[in-house]
Structure formats: C-alpha cells, structure tokens
Amino acid sequence: MSGRAPDLAPAESPDALRRAFSCFPSGVVAVCAHENGEAFVGMAASSFSTVSLDPPLVSVCVQNTSTTWPRLRSRQVIGVSVFAHDQSELCRQLAGPAPQRFDGVDLLCTDGGALFVAGAAAHLLCELHAEYAGGDHTVVLLRIRSLSANPDVDPLVFHASTFRRLTIDPAAEGAVTGTTS
Ligand SMILES: Cc1cc2nc3c(=O)[nH]c(=O)nc-3n(C[C@H](O)[C@H](O)[C@H](O)COP(=O)(O)O)c2cc1C
C-alpha cells in the first residue's frame, strides 16, 4: 500500500531544517577541559553521537563560529559528560555566556586536563582524533581513552527545542541487540 507523498519544503529553508532536525531526539553532553585545576573551557552539545567500538570513537559537530572549540581542540585531553535528566539548568549554563559557564558547577578534574561534570550518566576521557568540514559545522571525532558509565542514571533528552526525560514503554521494553550502544 502506498500513500500520498508528504508536503516537502525546500531544504534551503533554515526554519524548515531546524524544525526537521528538532524531531530527532538526542542526549546532550558537556565537552570540557581544564589546565592545572583552572582555565576551564567547555560547551554543551546535542550533536554527540557514538561512532565506533574499535577504535573507540564518538563525534560532536561544532559550529564554525564557536569561540570555545578553537580553545578546546588544542588541549591534550577533553572530558565528555553525558548530562543526567536533572541537569537541564546546568546544560543551559554550559551553553550560556562563557565567563559564567562554570560558576557554582560541581566539577571533576583529571590529572591530564579532562574536565567532567559531576553526576553525569557517563564520563568519557577523550583525545582529538580527526576533524572534517561539515558545512557550517566541523565534525569532530574524539577517541575515548578511558571511561565510566552508569546506564541506570536517566539521561537528559533534547527534543523539539526543549528538554525531556525518558520513560519506559512496557510494551516495547526488552534488550535490543546488534547496536554499538
Ligand atoms: C541544548 C543545546 C545543544 C547544543 N548543541 C550544540 C552542538 O551540538 N554544537 C555546537 O556547536 N553548539 C551547540 N550548542 C551551543 C553551544 O553550547 C554554545 O552555546 C555555542 O558553542 C556558542 O558558544 P561558544 O562561542 O563559546 O562556542 C548547544 C546549545 C544547547 C543549549
């Protein structure tokens, strides 16, 4: 059975694109680093994606206008924290004015320079692996060197320009195999 084609808007319309992109739910991460317990630098990103198990890779897409990424990319290691469901305000703060991003935030510093947000669902200690041009964004591949994770912590979900929390649908519950996550 086939139905009528959907009404398709031209992809040149940024509003139509934003609307379509917002239909795809994602988690949100903090991508952060420090130097000797200070010089904190970081940002929130919803473009995080898992990429590869071997080698262990994840990606984020960074706007080419970002003033934070040029400072982060030169650091030896970068901490990626997967925000927990109760960290939406923290996420907003890490996307807000750079000088106040870390004010009052409970942070975890590794010796090498990775900076994590306490209470996150997962912490990935990463090195920059590769960067690719991706239109008005840069696709950044990060190689995971070490990690800690707690899948029992509900993640923060970003969908339709707002934050949400996952609920389990009993009818669909059950392990899904054959994926990287
Ligand atoms: C929920 C949310 C998701 C975001 N995701 C991204 C992202 O994936 N990539 C990105 O470059 N900026 C993203 N931003 C914006 C950055 O956090 C930050 O505001 C932006 O990089 C401008 O700051 P900068 O000049 O310090 O980089 C997001 C902001 C919010 C609130």
- The proportion of residues forming helix, as a percent range, comes to 10-25%
What is the number of beta strands?
12
Query: What is the CATH superfamily classification of the domain at 66-76 and 85-135?
Result: Electron Transport, Fmn-binding Protein, Chain A
What structural class do helix, strand and pairing data support? mainly beta
In what order do the strands lie side by side in the largest sheet? 3-2-6-9-10-5-4
The CATH architecture of the domain at 66-76 and 85-135 can be given as Roll
List the secondary-structure elements in sequence, H or E. HEEEEEHEHEEEEEE
Bound molecules: flavin mononucleotide
Major sheet details: 7 strands, antiparallel
Indicate the proportion of strand residues: 35-45%
Question: What's the topology here?
Answer:
Elements: H1 14-22, E1 26-27, E2 29-35, E3 38-45, E4 49-52, E5 57-63, H2 69-72, E6 78-82, H3 88-95, E7 107-109, E8 115-117, E9 122-134, E10 137-149, E11 156-159, E12 162-165
Antiparallel strand pairs: 1-11, 2-3, 2-6, 4-5, 5-10, 6-9, 7-8, 9-10, 11-12
List keywords for this structure.
mainly beta; binds flavin mononucleotide; globular; 181 residues; Pnp Oxidase, Chain A; three-stranded antiparallel sheet; seven-stranded antiparallel sheet
